[in-house]
Amino acid sequence: MPYVKETLDSLAKTSPAQPEFYQAVEEVLASLRPLFKSTDKYMKHNIIQRIVEPERQIIFRVPWLDDKGNVQVNTGYRIQFNSAIGPYKGGLRFHPSVNLGILKFLGFEQIFKNSLSGLPIGGGKGGSNFDPKGKSENEIMRFCQAFMAELYRHIDDHTDVPAGDIGVGGREIGYMFGYYKKLTGLYEGVLTGKGLLWGGSLARTQATGYGSVYFAENMLKARGDSLEGKVCTVSGSGNVAIYTVEKLQQLGAKPVTVSDSSGFIHDPKGIDLALLKQIKEVERARLTRYAEVHKDAVYTPVEKYPPNRNPVWSVPCQAAFPSATQNELNVEDARELLKNGCICVSEGANMPSTPDAVEAFIAAGIAYGPGKAANAGGVSTSQLEMAQNASMQSWSFEEVDSKLKKIMAGIFNSCHNTAEEFKQPGNYVLGANIAGFRKVADAMIEQGVV
User: What local confidence, expressed as pLDDT, does residue 283 receive?
Assistant: First the structure.
């Protein structure tokens, strides 16, 4: 596949030192080989070189005052990657690990995730290396306002509609929306994940986690199985993980793990959802609190993790839901999951499995849902929020959840049918990548060289 190497060599020169971005590009391009063998039009129109380069990369300084009156400076980003099928759509991430390469990997994945949703939205991503942890409410508000003081120039409800991501929840969206409104004088659906009192959508908070579970249920249904009665492992303890746990319990499964940056909980009786929500959504505390309340739950701190392993994936289960961050599940973790009888992996996070782990899952023939398909519920419901804003309506929780369930079934069917079309049934990595790419690439061809 010389086109893969040629593209990566080119990116190493134009986008140096961005390994996560290279990983995302290689994973997509490698699985497109059957498509390129079936037609030469994408090569003829040089789509590969065009689609791996963002349409626009915005980098800016974010100066703000801390509570002591000291000036702090962070870097802000917005990667407007591809608008062939709709306005840029993708989250904002506030985390110390944020850099250009991370955001380009996320933005690139977002193109195909949004394409798979069947909704008219393009791909983008943004954020800052600002860390909300340990900051006061006023410091977070001042940073969000300083960040929006530049970002507002580049977004609106028909051009680029950011959402939340790691470190950006309803609080941060509120501060940014309020400042956008002050700067522009416009009350429009320019951000999603808004509060319910001012344009937000019911079920948006739950959407990514719910969607990941819906995708897993569709994968198992295609094999004559279901999630009911299955022991499940979940990583993370943010919105995605919490509502993955909630939907699993609603479908009769038993999630037994959650994690955060300090360690993980294994509760053999099943995660206490009410306690988890109290700790993470109300107290904003660490998971050590969980073990203090549930004495039969085992808490393992990060310091006791085996070298180069995530012990969440050593807990025996039938289904696993990586819902924390990128590359959190490596090939040794994958082998441990398979050895312990795991038959389904549905990714709630973005690219949480390393390439070797993905290969192990595909080779084993288990039901494996890659993030760009399995976690598309969040951005899909963001688009439903945009639709409600545009029509000045507010739909019920049940209506939004019903639409989400249908969207996830549609994404699964697209991946499933495309994999069968290219004679690799059950390979949803190939199915997702070809289906997502083909729609965007065809739109780019039809719109000319722009």
Answer: 92
283 vs 199: CA distance, rounded Å: 26
* Cα 394-398-402 angle, rounded to 5 deg: 105
pLDDT band at 1 (very low <50, low <70, confident <90, very high): low
pLDDT in tens, 279-323: 999 998 999 999 999 999 999 999 999 999 999 999 999 999 999
Whole-angstrom distance, CA of residue 326 vs CA of residue 370: 12
Task: Give yes or no for a contact between 350 and 377, defined as CB atoms under 8 angstroms apart.
Answer: no
Distance between CA atoms of 350 and 109, rounded to whole angstroms?
Answer: 8
- Please give the CATH number for the structural domain made up of 2-188: 3.40.50.10860
| pLDDT of amino acid 347 | 98
Q: What is the DSSP string of 7-55?
A: HHHHHHHHS-S-HHHHHHHHHHHHHTHHHHHH-SHHHHTTHHHHHTS-S
**CATH code given to domain 207-369:** 3.40.50.720
135 with 143: CB under 8 angstroms?
Answer: yes
Residues 6+ apart with CB under 8 A from 439: 85, 115
Query: CA 253 → CA 71, 216, 217, distances in Å?
Result: 49, 12, 11
Show the tokens assigned to 252: 């009769």
pLDDT for the residue numbered 394: 95
* CA-based torsion, 264, 133, 238, 411: positive or negative: negative
Distance CA 24, CA 35 (A): 18
In the chain, list all ranges with CATH 3.40.50.720. Answer: 207-369
**The whole model's pTM is what?**
0.93
The answer to whether residues 271 and 245 touch, using CB atoms and an 8 Å cutoff, is: yes
Q: Which two tokens stand for residue 37?
A: 């063998």
Question: Which segments of the chain belong to CATH 3.40.50.10860?
Answer: 2-188
Residue 42's CB is within 10 A of a number of other CB atoms, namely: 22
- Among 133, 208, 220, CA closest to 164: 208
Q: Beta strands 122-128 and 71-82: pairing type?
A: antiparallel
SS3 189: coil
Q: Is 342 exposed, middle or buried (0-12, 13-18, 19+ CB in 10 A)?
A: buried
Report in angstroms the alpha-carbon separations of 122 from 61, 170, 430, 441: 26, 23, 20, 12
- pLDDT reported for residue 284: 87
Q: Spot the catalytic one: 113, 125, 254, 439.
A: 125
Whether 44 is catalytic: no
Non-local (6+) Cβ contacts of 1 within 8 A are 29, 30, 33
- 324 vs 287: CA distance, rounded Å: 14
